[in-house]
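tool=predict chain=A
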Amino acid sequence: MSQAGRPLPDLEYADFAPFWQGTARGELRVPACVRCGRRQWPPRMACPACGGLDFAWSSIGDRGRLYSWTTIGRAMLPGFESEVPYTVVIVAAEADPRIRFVGRLDPAHEPPAHELPGIGDPLVAVFVPVEDVVLVYWRPDPGGPVPSAQEVQS
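tool=predict ok
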C-alpha cells in the first residue's frame, strides 16, 4: 500500500514501464509493431496483425472520445473508500480509435452525475503526480479535433 493509502502502479513492471515513463513526461505512450506499424493497447507479446515480436513505444497524443463509462459507488479495494463515488471511463484515442484507455474522470473536476460527458464526447488526458508515479485522469475537452463516433465504434 502506498502513502496515498491506495494501490499504485508498479513502475518496474517491464510490460508497462514505458507507459509510466511517458506519463512522467506528460504523454501517453503505446507500443507499435516494428514490422507493420500497428499500435496496440494493452501491450502484448506478439502483434495481432502480423505476428511481429518487436515493438517501439511512441506518443499517441492526449485526446480521445468517451467510449463508455460507469460510476463506482462502493470501494472494491482498500484505500478507495474516501473516493467513492467516482467515474471510470474508457477513452478511444484520437490518433487511433482502436486504442482504448481505461481510466477515471479527474477527481478535481468530476462533474455531478447529471452533467457527466456523453458517449462520443471529447476528453483530454490530465497528468497528476501521486508519490513517484504520474497517473492519467480524463477531463471533458470542449475544443480540439476528435474522431467521429463511427471511428470510435470501429
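Residues 146-154 have pLDDT under 50 and may be disordered. The longest helix spans residues 17-24.
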